[in-house]
Amino acid sequence: MVARAAERMVVRQIERRGVRDARVLAAMRKVERSAFLPDALREFAYEDTALPIEEGQTISQPYVVARMAETANLTSRDRVLEVGSGSGYAAAVLGEIAVRVHAIERHPALANLARNRLDALGYHNVNVLVGDGTLGWPKAAPFDAIVVSAGGPRVPDPLRQQLAIGGRLVMPVGDTSNRQRLVRIVRTSDEKFEQETLEDVMFLPLIGAEGWHDQNGRKVLSRRRRSETDQGNDAEADEQR
Q: C-alpha 170: how far from its chain's center?
């Protein structure tokens, strides 16, 4: 039953939207999204939407998890940092592809839940840490890829500096705390980074020393910009972390 639901999810929600990386598609088929949700929401696990989880957070829309994993261009040799692990679902997907994943979550209770779920499912190559993800995890750096599962006003400099040469960083960036553009940064040398802007997304805010200061964000849009932003609501991706 779960396998059929996951297969439908991959075909209808992910492949049809252009995700082609075979490793990502295989991971999305294998990881049981239902195992990373509260019991009351498991029946909705394979629907095309973000869903609420513990601590007032959300589990990402399946397509967005797949898109970010594909954009990170992962290999089986990569060491990955995920910022904002939430329930652990995206970390499990990354762990199906990469050799090692360090996932940071700022809510201790949520990090403990994610850790227990991942351990129970056999993801022993995923390490869940509690901390300020905007500062990264220097002890484990450098990373071949960094995936940030929350939206910030800019790419935190500590995360840039923890990328290996040739490393890729994927993150939602925008001037409001809940509407962003997905960007990919590639570190090409000690001092040089190439940045590419991709599609519109909507994530919960990245809270921390190098992110938003609180749940309301720290920047205030002008009245004109608010109007322009509101008009675009229907065109944005339905994603919240």
A: 8
User: Is 177 an active-site residue?
Assistant: no
Residue in 60, 85, 87, 177 annotated catalytic: 60
- Chain segment 159-208, per-residue pLDDT in tens: 999 999 999 999 999 987 667 999 999 999 999 999 999 999 999 999 99
Q: How many CB atoms lie within 10 A of CB 101?
A: 30
- What's the one-letter identity of residue 219? K
Of 47, 120, 55, nearest to 86 by C-alpha is 55
Residue with tokens 């921390």: 208
Place of tokens 């991706």: 237
Closest C-alpha to 203, from 34, 90, 75, 119: 90
Instruction: Show the CA angle centred on residue 119, arms to residues 117 and 120, nearest 5°.
Output: 65
This model's pTM is above 0.85: yes
Range(s) of the domain holding residue 47 = 2-235
Task: Give the CATH number of the domain where residue 62 resides.
Answer: 3.40.50.150
